[in-house]
Design brief:
Layout (H helix, E strand, L loop, with lengths): L13 E3 L4 H11 L1 H6 L14 H13 L15 H8 L7 H11 L4 H14 L12 E7 L2 E2 L9 E2 L5 E3 L2 E5 L4 E6 L11 H15 L4 E5 L6 H9 L3 E5 L7 H9 L4 E6 L2 E15 L5 E17 L5 E14 L5 H10 L3 H11 L10 H24 L16 H9 L3 E6 L2 E5 L7 H12 L2
Helix pairs in contact: 1-4, 1-6, 1-12, 1-14, 3-5, 3-12, 5-12, 6-7, 6-12, 12-13
């Protein structure tokens, strides 16, 4: 059978390609973010702006929720600006030029305000980060390089991944992976530089969202007594991978061979030693005093005399993994909890790939800081929509714990709808052949009833 040739015609009916912005608007309305931003004037001008800050930043959050961070993406609303304003709860849509200029003016001046607004977004929409089976709420902190090669943007430099770009640090909370804090950094900046201040900010933000005990998980780049001191003073638990620096791996193997009780040989020529040891450290408190502390170190040391292909190795290959902890879980549980920290790499991927924030839109570092800070509420909005769309009666190929951000954007935010007005009420019609229509309705009702 030959394909049918359809004639193309333009209609005056209001068919919107991004009906899911109404979901985004419901969540923003519950938090009151737009109204509070409208009352702030951070540019220092004597006369008021024609377009308020809430309209500027709210418009850009809407673009981020569609996975379109470029300033030019705001032009896609030109054909029907009324729907965009109604959906997002704003009064006016800025032009691409006004959006870029105002965000250049604002820069990073609203960081503390946006951090607070981000936590309010979660609290007001009843997004409670879930706990691990051990009873702790996980908080994963990690640096992820963003490739901005072949650009002359301010702050772009060589990252540890071997590309030119930025190296932002991210903090995710709960098993859902809510983005609780982030900070844009130059590509060459070491991951531990300014991290103690970032951890203090993150702890304060987490406390505004939940009162549950927190478990921080960090990579070896953040192996520092400064971080440990902050966790201890704030009553937080931690699992930090140790950086062996110049310590000999062979000497560690000799130390544990005679005392380790948990020894397994998964195959011929491979032996794994698992256990704990303790070491004394001294950290500097917030009052400047020096305090001794005994930290537990969990180790997993692997000795290979034969590789997986049957090749004998001489000398033997020794791999040492160690973690500093202040929790009383078993050695294997600590290792499993740290391995689960790797899930944050997928959260990085969703921000950089699904939301298209790998390459930042501005040449100014402070403006790109603002872009990343606005990505926090946008990412959390998409995450909340995805979490609400999981359950019986919703499209799922297999059981899932959460929906990927790209799936939310493609199937719910960018859902085509037919907009009509009747009896002074705006209505959106969803196609009867769209399998996601009932999910859209359920999510809309969930957030509009808060």
């Amino acid at each position: 059978m030959k394909p049918t040739h359809f004639q193309i015609e333009f209609t005056k009916e209001r068919i919107i390609p991004s009906g899911g912005l109404t979901l985004v608007g419901h969540i923003l309305e519950n938090s009151g973010l737009i109204d509070r931003l409208n009352k702030q004037d951070v540019t220092g001008r004597r006369s008021g702006h024609q377009i308020k800050n809430g309209d500027i930043l709210g418009s850009y959050i809407g673009c981020l929720c569609m996975g379109k961070p470029d300033f030019e993406a705001i032009r896609e609303t030109d054909d029907d600006p009324e729907f965009f304003c109604q959906a997002m709860g704003i009064e006016r849509i800025p032009s691409a030029e006004s959006l870029r200029q105002r965000m250049d003016e604002i820069g990073s001046s609203m960081r503390s305000s946006l951090l607070w607004e981000n936590t309010q977004l979660l609290v007001k929409n009843h997004a409670s980060p879930s706990r691990l089976p051990c009873g702790f709420v996980p908080v994963d902190i990690d640096v992820t390089p963003c490739d901005n090669s072949k650009t002359k943007k301010e702050g772009v430099s060589r990252t540890y991944k071997g590309c030119d770009g930025y190296a932002p640090i991210m903090a995710y909370m709960g098993r859902e992976g809510y983005l609780i804090n982030c900070e844009l950094r130059e590509g060459r900046q070491h991951c531990q530089k300014h991290t103690p201040e970032f951890i203090r900010e993150t702890i304060a933000a987490c406390r505004r969202v939940t009162k549950e005990p927190l478990l921080f998980r960090l990579d070896s780049g953040n192996d520092s007594s400064d971080n440990i001191s902050i966790f201890l003073e704030n009553g937080c638990s931690f699992i930090t991978k140790r950086n062996l620096r110049r310590e000999s791996r062979e000497s560690w193997l000799l130390k544990v061979k005679d005392v380790c009780r948990d020894i397994v040989s998964p195959r011929e020529g491979k032996t794994v030693y698992i256990g704990s040891t303790w070491r004394d450290i001294t950290y500097t408190g917030s009052d400047g005093g020096k305090y001794p502390f005994t930290v537990r170190t969990v180790y997993e040391i692997t000795e290979r005399s034969i590789d997986r292909n049957g090749q004998y190795l001489f000398p033997t290959d020794v791999e040492v993994n160690m973690w500093d902890v202040n929790v009383d879980f078993s050695d294997r549980d600590v290792i499993a909890l740290y391995h689960a920290h790797g899930e944050s790499e997928q959260f990085h991927s969703e921000i950089k790939t699904d939301m298209n924030l790998e390459r930042f839109p501005s040449g100014k570092f402070s403006t790109n800081e603002l872009v990343l800070e606005l990505a926090m509420p946008a990412y959390n909005i998409l995450r909340m929509i995805g979490d609400e769309s999981i359950g019986p009666g919703h499209p799922m190929r297999h059981p899932v714990k959460r929906r990927r951000i790209g799936t939310v954007i493609k199937n719910l935010v960018m859902m085509a709808c037919h907009v009509t007005m009747h009896a002074r009420k705006s209505r959106i019609g969803l196609g009867g052949s769209n399998v996601w229509r009932r999910t859209f309705q359920k999510v809309s009702l969930s957030f509009s009833c808060l």
